[in-house]
Specification:
The protein is mostly beta strands. The protein has a domain of 188 residues: Glucose Permease (Domain IIA) (Distorted Sandwich), CATH 2.70.70. The strands form four sheets. Strands 9, 12, 13, 14, 15, 16, 17, 18, 19 and 20 form a ten-stranded antiparallel β-sheet that branches. It has a four-stranded antiparallel β-sheet with strand order 4-3-6-7, with no helix packed on it.
Length: 329
């Protein structure tokens, strides 16, 4: 198992206990219902059981849940302890706590700098640090290298798009960021998450100028071709393909709790869809495939709302901020 790596300081976070308590009360006029253990999934149809005497009248004070914590910056992640099956409201986002006893909410890159969190009847407010992403101009852009122009290229791009949608739609149980993340390769960062890139170039086909703008949604590592790539956290593979049109060799790794790592431009893919891997396991080798402009590992993390089938609201968060979370032994 590899240790934690990264070039970011690790803040001190609160440890927490997951405690579940309930209050059971009865009155002479009406017997108390049987307590039901909350579950992350909908229960099966109820089956009648033997009659059980009502519990004696008592009152148990519910303990306070541990504070929410995480990488509290735009593009980061909030982790909130909560009773499994309970509703947690984070601003306008409504999430159901999973079997791990948490909800894990990826913070949009442009979210407000404060967020109200409601658990039960208790509201807390967290301050979210702002980003200061820059604009980068990339001259000498090869338009023909990126655009799908020929019928074969367009068919390849369309087939790749279908494969990616399938990979994004699959969810597996997992602990998400509870055990922390490590760098997926022994390499220095070369391009951060967040900057807006303005590409300026000329088409070699027709001599026409071209220009496009996009936000860099990943965290690039400067890796020579063939550098081992490791799972930054435990997860299940939802896509493993050696030749997507734009991404080249690609792996999707679902960590659970809505978090999914994307690895692009790989020269070798060493896992298959459905494989479960532990943190630190080798899954691939880096490369320069797809529409890459040079050898490197592109690592992205997408947060997907696990409580909806609508994938249109999913978005990428900053992988570097996940490296600041505490790493379990």
């Amino acid at each position: 198992m590899r240790g934690a790596a990264g070039c970011f300081s690790t803040p001190l976070f609160l440890s927490f206990l997951f405690l579940v308590a309930c209050t059971v009360a009865t009155s002479p006029a009406e017997p108390a219902p049987m307590p039901v253990e909350p579950d992350a999934e909908a229960p099966a149809d109820p089956v009648a059981g033997p009659e059980i005497d009502a519990a004696p009248e008592t009152s148990i004070e519910a303990p306070e849940l541990a504070d929410c914590y995480g990488a509290l910056k735009q593009g980061g992640l909030i982790i909130c302890p909560a009773m499994p099956g309970s509703l947690v409201e984070l601003g306008e986002m409504r999430l159901i706590a999973g079997a791990s006893g948490t909800v894990q909410y990826g913070l949009p890159r442009t979210m407000p700098e404060e967020i109200d969190i409601l658990r039960g009847n208790v509201t807390t407010t967290l301050t979210i640090a702002p980003r200061n992403d820059e604009l980068r101009v990339v001259p000498g852009f090869d338009c023909d290298k990126v655009d799908a122009r020929t019928p074969a290229q367009k068919a390849h791009a369309a087939d790749s798009w279908e494969k990616k949608q399938t990979g994004f739609s699959l969810f597996y149980p997992g602990r998400g960021a509870l055990d922390g993340f490590i760098l997926p390769a022994d390499a220095r960062p070369s391009s951060p998450f967040g900057p807006t890139r303005q590409y300026i170039g000329v088409s070699k086909t027709n001599g026409q100028p071209c220009e496009s703008m996009s936000v860099h949604q990943g965290f690039d590592l400067a890796t020579p071709v063939g550098t081992p790539v490791y799972a930054p956290a435990a997860g299940t593979v939802t896509l493993a393909d050696p030749d997507l049109y734009y991404e080249g060799g690609t792996i999707f790794l679902d960590h659970g709790q809505g978090l999914l790592s994307v690895f692009m431009h790989l020269s070798e893919v060493d896992v298959a869809a459905g494989d479960h891997v532990e943190r630190g396991a080798m899954i691939a080798k880096s490369g320069n495939t797809g529409r890459s402009t040079g050898p490197h590992l592109h690592w992205a993390v997408k947060w997907r709302n696990p409580d909806t089938d609508n994938r249109g609201g999913d978005y990428y968060i900053d992988p570097a901020l996940l490296l600041e979370l505490p790493v379990a032994d």
